[in-house]
Structures are given as C-alpha cells and as structure tokens.
Amino acid sequence: xxxxxxxxxxxxxxxxxxxxxxxxxxxxxxxxxxxxxxxxxxxxxxxxxxxxxxxxxxxxxxxxxxxxxxxxxxxxxxxxxxxxxxxxxxxxxxxxxxxxxxxxxxxxxxxxxxxxxxxxxxxxxxxxxxxxxxxxxxxxxxxxxxxxxxxxxxxxxxxxxxxxxxxxxxxxxxxxxxxxxxxxxxxxxxxxxxxxxxxxxxxxxxxxxxxxxxxxxxxxxxxxxxxxxxxxxxxxxxxxxxxxxxxxxxxxxxxxxxxxxxxxxxxxxxxxxxxxxxxxxxxxxxxxxxxxxxxxxxxxxxxxxxxxxxxxxxxxxxxxxxxxxxxxxxxxxxxxxxxxxxxxxxxxxxxxxxxxxxxxxxxxxxxxxxxxxxxxxxxxxxxxxxxxxxxxxxxxxxxxxxxxxxxxxxxxxxxxxxxxxxxxxxxxxxxxxxxxxxxxxxxxxxxxxxxxxxxxxxxxxxxxxxxxxxxxxxxxxxxxxxxxxxxxxxxxxxxxxxxxxxxxxxxxxxxxxxxxxxxxxxxxxxxxxxxxxxxxxxxxxxxxxxxxxxxxxxxxxxxxxxxxxxxxxxxxxxxxxxxxxxxxxxxxxxxxxxxxxxxxxxxxxxxxxxxxxxxxxxxxxxxxxxxxxxxxxxxxxxxxxxxxxxxxxxxxxxxxxxxxxxxxxxxxxxxxxxxxxxxxxxxxxxxxxxxxxxx
Length: 695
Known about the structure:
alpha/beta, Alpha-Beta Plaits, 4 domains, nine-stranded mixed beta sheet, 23 helices, 44% helix
C-alpha cells in the first residue's frame, strides 16, 4: 500500500531537527566567547592591543613645540667616530640654545668619565645652559643618581609599581650640573610593543621620575612631584602647575602618536627652535636602540617626545577600569539579541550588521571625542562568532529542512509547489482552514488485470506504477497536491498550499485529463501487452477543509480533513453504481457549471447526511446533439420527480444511445430504479431525493 507524504516533514529525524534548530549551539558559543573575553588570555589581550593601535595611530597629527635632533649617520661621518669627546656635546647644546631652544633634553648617558678629558668643558656649558639628562633602570647601580624625590601621599605601596634593582646614572659631576635627570626605560607589552610608558619607577625604596615627568617638574619649577598610592598601585600622579596626570595602576600612560615632533639631523637644524623643548639622542645604526611601537620602530627620544606631548597637551588616553565590564556586557547582550533576531533571517542579518557597526563605530567615536579606549574589535569578533554559529546552524538546518521537504513532496507535488513549501515551511507545519477542491480516484478493472499477470508480481507492480504515474502527472501539472495513495486509489486537492482562485475549475479539468491519461495508458502500455484495459472512477467536491501537518509525534503527514473531504469520497464511491467515470459534487458544479458539459445524475442523500446532495457528471466534449439530449435528460429527471415514472423510462430508453453511449449504463440503472419506484407508495410531496443505504 502506498501512502502520501508522511513522516517528519522537516528532517528525517524529528529529534535531530529540534536539536539543530535550537539555539543551544549559539548559546554555548556565547558562553564560551564571554568566558574567553573575561579570562583575557595573552592572545586575546594582544588582539585587543592591536585594535587600540589602530585607534591611536590613525588620528590626525598635532604639531607642537617639541623637537627631536638626531645624531645620525651623516653626523658621525662629519664629526668622527662615536662616542664623541664631551666638548662636542657642549657645542651641540650651545648651538641648539643659540637657535632659540627653551630646554634641551640630552639623552646621551654618560656613566664614565670622558676619555678625552673634556668633562669640564661640558660642565661649564651645562652651568650656562640648562640641560635635562637621562638615567636607566637596570639590574645593578652605577653612580649615584640625583633624585628630585617624590611627595608620596598614602601608604607606600612601591612594590606594586615598576621596580628595578639598580639605576645607571651619569657621573656625579655631570649629574650635579644637570637641571634634572629622568628614567628612559620603556615597558613593552606582552607582544614586545611599547604602547604605554611608566611615568615613575621604584628602585631600592626610592621613586624616580620618567624623563617626561622630569621635564614637566622642571618647567613647573617644582622641587618634586606628587604621587598617591593605594593598595592597587598608583592612584594618581600630579605636578601642581600641570594638574593630575591619569595613569594605570603601575603608573603607565598611553602614548598619543598624534602628538608629533619636528625631527632634524644635527647637521641640518632649523635656525629657530622658537623656545621649544629639544630632545637629542644618537640615531645612527649600531648606536641607537630603536623601540618597537604601534608606529613601528622609533628612536627613544622620539618616543619620549611623544610622551611629553601627550601629557603636556593633556591628550591623555585612558582605558577606564569599567571598560572590560561594559565590553563583556555588550558581548553577552549583543549575542543574545543576535540569537533571538536570527529567527527572522534578513532582519536578523541586518540587525547583526548594525550591531557590529555600532561596536566598532562606537569605539572610534568614544576615542575621538573622549580619548577613551573601548574594545570594538574583540567585541565584534565575539559577536561574529556567535552570529556565525547561529546562522550556520540555521542555514544548515534550513537546507536539511528543504531537502527533507523535497524528498517528502517531490513525488506528490509539482516543482513549483515543492519550492513554495521549501520557502514557506509554515504552510505545512501550521494548520489552515480554507476552501479547497478535493478529488478522489479509484482504479477500475484491477481484478482481471491482476489475474492476467498470475504470479508475475514484478510485472503487475510495474504496470500499476505506470498507471499511478499516468494519473499523477495531470495533478502535478495543475499545481495540485497529492495527499495520499491508498492501494490503487489516490486523493489530491487544489488551492493548497498554492492559492488557486479557480480551484474548482482546475480540479474538474484535472479529472478529465486523468481520464484521458488512463485511455492513453491503455492504448500505449496495457493493450499492447495483451492485458485487459483498466479504467478510473473519480469524485470531486468543493468545500472548507482543515489542512496541514497531521498525525502523531512519531509519524505525521500533510493532510486535509473536513466534511467536504468525506463528501468527495462518497461521491467517488457512487461512480460504479451510476456507471459514470467522473462525478461532481453540488458545490463544485455551482462554481463551474458554465465551464463544462454537465449532466445531472441524482439528488442523493448519502449515508450520514440529513440533507440531499445533487451530484453531476461531466462529459469530455460538447456538440449540438449533446445539447439537445441534455434538455431531454433534464426532462427525464423532471418526470421522475413528478412521479411520472413511465415517462421517465421512455426518455431513458430514448437517451440510451446518446452521448456516444457514455451514459448507457446510467440509463439502465435509472430504468431499473423507476420500475422499483412504481411499486412504492410514495407521498404526494416526495421530493425525488434518493436515500442511499451505503456510503
């Protein structure tokens, strides 16, 4: 027995379907990425820092009154091998001041006495021209650094900030003549790139300022700088004239690379430094030690100049302590919204794109307007991961769903209907109530056909499948839906799932095409094999039906229920009794009476019904002779209803050979009925309705 499109519609296994369609994978992904974001492993931190690099280095440059002078390769060629006698240092310092410098930061560490004995020349110059020198935090100490000291506010938690075992300073005489000395150590991030520089370090219980802090202290004329410490580290740094300098807990400040400085070779300096601050350091290959930064390798004095510009111009970049919490919340809430919105594919994708754009664009906006670093990259990556999993599962599930629909329906519906179901699976899953036209068909002549094959089951099966293919093709061509095959019977509907405003007409036309298909099948397949020809009886009815996926949780199918369905089945069952190939219910007739050649068959009260039902047959053809016979046929029925049974019998005999003998069996049956009615004591108000005793 063949059945219709039964079983789980959307997936081969209903439990697998539910599992794949559920948001569990997306939720697990969201939990995972949120945990990774919270744990902040090295690879995540590195990714985040590189995103911050893009925010910082892509800002428009701001010119300031800070300069860098390079002791470059050209200078070495001009003045001789490095290191130079300190008398040349003195000449450089004096030359820069003669060109209008306001302050010189001479970043050449001098931990030993000059081999040329020219320390005194440098000291004389430094006595006349103020110079800030540099020191270096190291594993050991050399010389005694001149420390301006720090005014420490709060507990002395110096172990929480950057510590060095020792300090390498300039020789005491040079330190004594210097206006100040600052640390030049940088503190690379985990990827080796310097992005933040500590403004203060600790060594042997003392605090030492960075070069930037020392320059600011000197410019402010303060004898020391202020630092507030707490149990977390540095709370704030302060030089009264310049106010508070925001740092992280270990005293670092982000470098704002928009604070550029004009750079010159010592061999080609400008005529006027306009009172600016000038950093001097060797940059020649083999002498300089470039520092890896977000801009790429830069020389130490360039980094310190950018640091000074950052702090001096209050272009301080901050990474607030609440930022990670906000970002994690954005990941969690954004991920949940993506999971929910994915239910509506296009709206969900648009929302996801908007969310991602907001994460990135928002971080850029906040940085450009408030100099705050918020992570837009990792937030976006986390949301992309959630979206990728969610939509991958969704699209894979939908693909499997479409494949399952195709597998279940491609033999029961046209490609157009299958495509519609794939696009709108709710048409199957959700039940609807609408008017449809239902056609039931049944094979005639199976017994002699089966007997002709004897034990050749394969041969019988092949010819039966050919018959089913023949009657199915007209249904598919009309975008009808095969509901089920039951043995050699079939059921199909029109106007669902595809709308067909002319569904009644379509159903009748399809029924006629099915009859032609059976005739052709007999001519081309059955008779050439020497087999007895087969026939088909069909019944059509139109009415409201309840349509959708019906059945148990384990096995269900696309089906239609309702009184119109049972009526169609009963109409079809009368085909043999009336000797007709195609019978039409009253509702179908009323919608199509002007489209086909109809003959009224009977006013019938079928079993289970209290109201009479007019049924009709439709003949494939139309001639003037048929139209004349149609009038006599109606007269016969009128005589029958008037209890003039003899007249009805006379007309049946007259009509016996009309309509190309297609109705001969019907008129035989009708004559027999009239003879029977003549023996009955009928009431005067009898309405001519025949009460059927079977379905």
